[in-house]
């Protein structure tokens, strides 16, 4: 294929140069090549290659904080690309070594206390990771490398030395052109300085792009493996997390997609917690329009109630999303007592988004900080789960001085009146007081949800938009928790099926041996 493509081009080049020389036009057109080469060289200098897309570390909506830390390790391997030669990038053993090195780093990260980090992994997890990686790499090769269906290992290895055979062909052409016009010697030297460097850089960038995608895909499934999400096997994982288009579907760029879960149908549970008289009940009335319908009570609780609510999914998600509101018991200024802690903990552990309701005109946030500390501690003990985003809702903002003034709406991003400025200051103060929980608290919003319709403000302007911004994150929290629960709940039935299948296969082997 290369010869059939090159021969006509070379013939046209030789015949064209001879014709230009015979007609005398070569003297007038000799400058075209060096000028274009020079412009190519300077354009490459002024327009450097951007690897912003390829160097993105693996990510997914269901990643926990621990997974995000592992993604940084993958990014470190990606950043090594500038120190890797084209010869290494066409060596299959090099990719195997990188795979082994990345596997070891991630295993040590997830299992730092184990003498042998790999011993903490199960056989199904390793097998599922190998299968998923192989499927993705197959799609990467088929769709990203031209002529890959006919590409042999030998040809792939030779790609790292491509400039050598290109130089041989080019030098032969140049040698012939010297006989036609001795001035071509100068153009030859200029091309070595300009076009050769650009060509080598292009070759390196193609190989670098493939390497970066390889590390990203491999790193993604190694993270999933070490997190324990592959313990149910590749099929269970795909059914839970991959898009409905199915595994192995390639994107328009030809890269097998990093799995993203289909979130639109996932219910979201919003837990509402806060101090006594902070305004939780009023906020629920405001959210539901006063039409609260108790769906159920959480198991083994007496005070936590669940209400059903349907909200628009917004721009990123289609249709309507079912939202459950959990109303937990309020706690005092000194925090929750033992019974309250049990009830609140049950509600928090069942929540995908948390609305922490706090009195906007009260500066003390110690009890709220204690609740957030409880959430942080619980999820630190369960690193396989993703903590829910926390939206802090400041209520009673109509009582913030000047208390007698109340004329909503207020533009809190650009406050103009003393009332708006004080509300904005209360939001800033709350963020500062709860700053140690910045990894949990994603937003602080203001609302007035009192019984008087004329004084209500902030639901459409602040609270609902904050919920919509974090709806997809909340659905990923729900998905991950449901996945973990479903995999663990099926262990007994899975064991029975394994015993049945294994016994049947042993019986068939024994009967076949007897018949033989």
What keywords describe this structure?
516 residues; alpha/beta; Rossmann fold; 2 domains; seven-stranded mixed sheet; 19 helices; 7 strands; flat
Topology readout:
Elements: H1 2-23, H2 26-29, H3 32-46, H4 65-78, H5 86-89, H6 92-110, H7 123-144, H8 153-158, H9 162-180, H10 184-193, H11 195-226, H12 234-241, E1 268-274, H13 280-288, E2 294-297, E3 305-312, E4 320-327, H14 338-349, E5 353-359, H15 366-380, E6 390-395, H16 418-433, E7 441-446, H17 459-469, H18 471-489, H19 491-515
Parallel strand pairs: 1-4, 1-5, 5-6, 6-7
Antiparallel strand pairs: 2-3, 3-4
Helix pairs in contact: 1-9, 4-6, 4-11, 6-11, 7-11
Summarize the structure.
The chain is of the alpha/beta class and about 525 residues long.
Task: Explain what the structure shows.
By secondary structure, this protein is of the alpha/beta class. The protein folds into two domains: 31-241, no CATH class; 268-484, 3-Layer(aba) Sandwich (Rossmann fold). 55% of the residues lie in helices and 9% in strands. The protein contains 19 helices and seven strands. The chain has helices spanning 2-23, 26-29, 32-46, 65-78, 86-89, 92-110, 123-144, 153-158, 162-180, 184-193, 195-226, 234-241, 280-288, 338-349, 366-380, 418-433, 459-469, 471-489, 491-515, and strands spanning 268-274, 294-297, 305-312, 320-327, 353-359, 390-395, 441-446. Strands 2-3-4-1-5-6-7 form a seven-stranded mixed beta sheet, with helices on both faces. The longest helix is centred in the middle third of the chain and has 32 residues, at 195-226. The protein is flat. The two termini are 54 Å apart.
